[in-house]
Write a structure and sequence with these properties.
Keywords: Calcium, Metal-binding, tRNA processing
GO molecular function: calcium ion binding
Organism: Pyrobaculum islandicum (strain DSM 4184 / JCM 9189 / GEO3)
Radius of gyration: 18 Å
Pfam families: Archease
Protein name: Protein archease
Shape: globular
Order of helices and strands: EHEHEEHEEE
Structural class: alpha+beta
Strand content: 35-45%
CATH architecture: 3-Layer(bab) Sandwich
Number of strands: 7
Helix content: 25-40%
Number of domains: 1
Length: 147
Protein backbone atom coordinates (compact mmCIF):
# COMPACT_ATOMS: atom_id res chain seq x y z
CA UNK A 1 0.00 0.00 0.00
CA UNK A 2 1.31 3.45 -0.90
CA UNK A 3 1.43 6.27 1.65
CA UNK A 4 3.89 8.86 2.93
CA UNK A 5 5.88 6.55 5.19
CA UNK A 6 9.61 6.42 4.41
CA UNK A 7 10.14 2.69 5.24
CA UNK A 8 8.45 -0.15 7.10
CA UNK A 9 10.90 0.04 9.96
CA UNK A 10 14.19 1.64 10.93
CA UNK A 11 16.85 0.98 13.53
CA UNK A 12 18.11 4.01 15.37
CA UNK A 13 21.05 4.63 17.62
CA UNK A 14 20.22 3.90 21.23
CA UNK A 15 22.47 3.77 24.21
CA UNK A 16 21.56 0.97 26.57
CA UNK A 17 23.68 2.33 29.40
CA UNK A 18 23.12 4.57 32.39
CA UNK A 19 25.94 6.59 33.94
CA UNK A 20 25.66 6.97 37.72
CA UNK A 21 27.59 9.34 39.94
CA UNK A 22 27.34 8.70 43.68
CA UNK A 23 28.70 11.08 46.29
CA UNK A 24 29.59 10.87 49.96
CA UNK A 25 31.42 12.77 52.67
CA UNK A 26 33.30 9.50 53.20
CA UNK A 27 34.19 6.69 50.83
CA UNK A 28 31.80 4.42 52.77
CA UNK A 29 28.92 6.85 52.29
CA UNK A 30 29.67 7.09 48.56
CA UNK A 31 29.54 3.27 48.27
CA UNK A 32 26.20 3.23 50.14
CA UNK A 33 24.82 5.90 47.83
CA UNK A 34 26.06 3.95 44.80
CA UNK A 35 23.94 1.01 45.98
CA UNK A 36 20.85 3.16 46.53
CA UNK A 37 21.29 4.85 43.13
CA UNK A 38 21.42 1.42 41.47
CA UNK A 39 18.24 0.25 43.20
CA UNK A 40 16.39 3.49 42.40
CA UNK A 41 16.73 2.70 38.69
CA UNK A 42 14.26 -0.17 39.23
CA UNK A 43 12.15 0.59 42.35
CA UNK A 44 11.52 3.16 45.09
CA UNK A 45 13.89 2.36 47.96
CA UNK A 46 12.02 4.64 50.38
CA UNK A 47 9.09 2.18 50.18
CA UNK A 48 11.25 -0.82 51.16
CA UNK A 49 11.03 -1.85 54.81
CA UNK A 50 14.22 -3.13 56.51
CA UNK A 51 12.60 -6.46 57.50
CA UNK A 52 15.47 -8.82 56.63
CA UNK A 53 19.26 -8.54 56.74
CA UNK A 54 21.73 -9.83 54.15
CA UNK A 55 25.43 -9.88 54.96
CA UNK A 56 27.92 -9.30 52.16
CA UNK A 57 31.70 -9.55 52.26
CA UNK A 58 33.71 -8.77 49.14
CA UNK A 59 37.29 -7.81 48.40
CA UNK A 60 39.47 -6.73 45.52
CA UNK A 61 42.97 -5.41 44.82
CA UNK A 62 41.84 -1.88 43.94
CA UNK A 63 38.88 0.42 44.57
CA UNK A 64 37.58 0.22 40.99
CA UNK A 65 37.41 -3.57 41.17
CA UNK A 66 35.78 -3.32 44.59
CA UNK A 67 33.09 -0.99 43.21
CA UNK A 68 32.50 -3.39 40.31
CA UNK A 69 32.11 -6.37 42.67
CA UNK A 70 29.86 -4.35 45.05
CA UNK A 71 27.40 -3.38 42.31
CA UNK A 72 27.61 -6.82 40.71
CA UNK A 73 26.75 -8.46 44.05
CA UNK A 74 23.72 -6.18 44.48
CA UNK A 75 22.53 -7.09 40.97
CA UNK A 76 23.00 -10.79 41.79
CA UNK A 77 20.88 -10.47 44.96
CA UNK A 78 18.07 -8.78 43.07
CA UNK A 79 18.22 -11.15 40.09
CA UNK A 80 18.39 -14.40 42.06
CA UNK A 81 16.46 -13.61 45.25
CA UNK A 82 14.43 -10.53 44.25
CA UNK A 83 15.86 -8.88 47.37
CA UNK A 84 14.97 -5.17 47.38
CA UNK A 85 17.35 -3.09 49.48
CA UNK A 86 16.15 -0.32 51.76
CA UNK A 87 18.12 2.85 52.40
CA UNK A 88 19.42 1.27 55.61
CA UNK A 89 22.89 -0.10 54.83
CA UNK A 90 25.67 -0.72 57.35
CA UNK A 91 28.97 -0.68 55.47
CA UNK A 92 32.57 -1.02 56.60
CA UNK A 93 35.22 -0.39 53.94
CA UNK A 94 38.87 -1.00 54.71
CA UNK A 95 42.20 -2.25 53.43
CA UNK A 96 44.49 -5.01 54.63
CA UNK A 97 46.32 -6.78 51.81
CA UNK A 98 43.34 -5.88 49.60
CA UNK A 99 40.39 -3.50 49.81
CA UNK A 100 37.28 -5.02 51.37
CA UNK A 101 33.65 -4.28 52.15
CA UNK A 102 31.74 -5.91 54.97
CA UNK A 103 28.14 -4.81 54.71
CA UNK A 104 24.70 -5.59 56.04
CA UNK A 105 21.89 -4.74 53.63
CA UNK A 106 18.39 -4.41 55.03
CA UNK A 107 15.35 -4.96 52.87
CA UNK A 108 12.58 -7.32 51.86
CA UNK A 109 11.37 -9.34 48.87
CA UNK A 110 10.58 -7.09 45.91
CA UNK A 111 6.87 -6.41 45.43
CA UNK A 112 5.95 -4.32 42.39
CA UNK A 113 2.67 -3.23 44.02
CA UNK A 114 4.47 -1.93 47.12
CA UNK A 115 7.85 -0.78 45.77
CA UNK A 116 6.78 0.28 42.29
CA UNK A 117 8.72 0.01 39.05
CA UNK A 118 10.70 3.05 37.96
CA UNK A 119 11.19 1.82 34.42
CA UNK A 120 14.58 0.14 34.08
CA UNK A 121 15.95 -3.35 34.58
CA UNK A 122 19.71 -3.28 35.10
CA UNK A 123 21.41 -6.15 33.29
CA UNK A 124 25.07 -5.74 34.19
CA UNK A 125 27.79 -3.62 35.72
CA UNK A 126 30.58 -2.34 33.47
CA UNK A 127 34.04 -0.82 33.89
CA UNK A 128 33.19 1.79 31.22
CA UNK A 129 33.89 5.37 32.39
CA UNK A 130 34.45 4.17 35.97
CA UNK A 131 36.03 6.76 38.19
CA UNK A 132 36.64 7.04 41.93
CA UNK A 133 38.10 10.23 43.28
CA UNK A 134 38.20 12.53 46.23
CA UNK A 135 37.14 16.09 45.44
CA UNK A 136 37.95 18.55 48.19
CA UNK A 137 36.09 17.15 51.23
CA UNK A 138 33.91 14.52 49.52
CA UNK A 139 34.13 11.40 47.33
CA UNK A 140 32.64 10.76 43.90
CA UNK A 141 32.08 7.29 42.44
CA UNK A 142 31.14 7.11 38.77
CA UNK A 143 30.09 3.95 37.00
CA UNK A 144 28.00 2.76 34.07
CA UNK A 145 25.43 -0.04 34.07
CA UNK A 146 23.91 -1.82 31.10
CA UNK A 147 20.10 -1.68 31.01
Amino acid sequence: MKCGKPVDYRYGEHTADVLIQAYGCTLEEAFKNAAIALAELTYHTEKVEPRYAKEITIDYNDLEGLLFRWIDELLFLFDTEKFAISREIVLNLGKNDVYYIKAVLYGEPYDIEKHGFTGLIVKAMTFHMMEIRQIDDYWMLQYVVDV
